[in-house]
TrEMBL record:
Belongs to the trans-sulfuration enzymes family. One of its GO terms (cellular component) is cytoplasm. It comes from Candidatus Limivivens intestinipullorum. GO terms for biological process: cysteine biosynthetic process from serine; L-homocysteine biosynthetic process; transsulfuration. This is O-acetylhomoserine aminocarboxypropyltransferase/cysteine synthase.
């Protein structure tokens, strides 16, 4: 499908029906798959042949959807997970172990901040959080001899900082580590990080890819561009024999698919954060309409951002699509077709006004979710980033009165009318 444009790929990539076969991806709702001989099954467990034997590792429905997303991002392979959090964890844990270190943008999603700053620290993996806007000289100071990866978000949730992907890719590669980018908010419709030097991309497929709040899921896509063999001592999990698979060396056996194969055959085998085939089927339905929805999200969000930016009760608006936004120039570079449908803003009267505003909304829902077809709103300091202290909130770009507004695909006039009546109560 490499010659087709992304709108076509969203419909056709990953699955090609044969004569008389189902036009839509079938749901292989089965845990296991039958074989005629013990030898055939044994080759699968030795990774000597391709096929399916247990859905915790692979499933035809899941693999078709993973292949579609890999094609959308321009990667060599992908693995679906049970959530975006699982995708973030697997993307790092696939190359990190106790004693290792990660450099991460400080403005990432609160759950990611907690994953790296608390949970992975318990596993012996340390993280240094850096200001994504810091100069290269300052960022270089965050690296250590045991640094294994750099992590950031194309558009940070909820601070809406646009990552300078090219800058971060250069810094990561100068220190001989891969750049992993969470591309959830931008989607491959608006940004393909591999084209700017990123090595691995993750998504919470729960968001725009699904688009209807119908399933929870995640995905990891590998570009195939990072040369793990070049730094064999650093990435020995990929470049040395895996005794749990009879001494297989992933880079030797699987080449550019080494990273994804290891994540599937080792992490998914042992940790098991798989999505169900039904969830993958629902995700695929969302992917088919994603370009249309993303375009509408961006159009509506631009109108809402302009409205809020001129409202007397609004102190400031964060939306890179606005010409005066701090990240507008980076958005023009990396996201020329539009940023996303998410806006964050703060009211002049602070936190209490934010609560009154949110409680006064009628069309928009107060929800922990974001980036689906329906407009919803959230107060990060009280919800997604509640575990952070004031200093950490400041580093993440989350002020006490910040409101995150996920603009849906309703008629924009109805969205604006709802905001107007709620702002009168704020």
């Amino acid at each position: 499908m490499s010659d087709y444009r992304i709108e076509t790929k969203c419909l056709h990539s990953g699955y090609t029906p044969g004569n008389g076969e189902p036009r839509q991806i079938p749901i292989y709702q089965s845990t296991t798959f039958k074989y005629d001989t013990s030898e055939e099954m044994g080759k699968l467990f030795d990774l000597e042949s391709n096929g399916y034997f247990y859905t915790r590792l692979q499933n035809p429905t899941n693999d078709s959807v993973a292949a579609k997303i890999a094609d959308l991002e321009g990667g060599v392979g992908a693995i679906l997970t049970s959530s975006g959090q699982a995708a973030t964890f697997y993307s790092l844990f696939n190359i990190c172990e106790a004693g290792d270190h990660v450099v991460c943008s400080s403005t990432v999603y609160g759950g990611t901040f907690n994953l790296l700053g608390v949970t992975m620290k318990k596993l012996g993996i340390d993280a240094t959080f850096v200001d994504p806007d810091a100069p290269i000289e300052e960022l270089n100071k965050a690296f250590r001899p045991n640094t294994k990866a750099v992590f950031g978000e194309t558009i940070a949730n909820p601070a809406l900082v646009v990552l300078d992907i090219e800058k971060f890719a250069k810094i990561a590669h100068d220190h001989e580590v891969p750049l992993i980018v969470d591309n959830t908010f931008a989607t491959p419709v608006n940004c393909r990080p591999f084209e700017w030097g990123a090595d691995i991309v993750t998504h919470s497929t729960t968001k725009y890819m699904d688009g209807h709040a119908a399933q929870v899921g995640g995905v990891i896509v590998d570009s195939g561009n990072f040369d793990w063999s070049k730094y064999g001592d650093k990435y020995h999990g990929l470049t040395r024999p895996d005794e749990s698979y009879h001494g297989i060396v992933y880079t030797e056996r699987f080449g550019k698919l080494a990273y994804i194969t290891k994540a599937t055959s080792q992490l998914m085998r042992d940790l098991g954060s798989i999505p169900s085939p039904m969830n993958c089927f629902l995700l695929n339905l969302g992917l088919e309409s994603m370009p249309l929805r993303v375009e509408r999200h961006c159009y509506n969000a631009s109108k809402v951002a302009e409205y809020l930016n001129s409202h007397e009760k609004v102190a400031h608006v964060n939306y890179a699509g606005l010409p005066g936004d701090k990240y507008h120039e980076l958005a023009k570079k990396y996201l020329p077709k539009g940023t996303c449908g998410v806006i964050s803003f703060e009211l002049k009267d602070g936190r209490e006004a934010a609560v009154r505003f949110m409680d006064g909304l009628k069309l928009a829902s107060i929800a922990t979710h974001v980036a689906d077809a329906k407009t919803c709103v959230l107060h990060p300091a009280s919800h997604t980033h509640r575990q952070m202290n004031d200093e950490q909130l400041a580093e993440a770009g989350v002020s006490p009165g910040l409101i995150r507004l996920s603009v849906g695909i309703e008629n924009v006039e109805d969205i604006l009318a709802d905001l107007e009546q709620a702002l009168k109560l704020a």
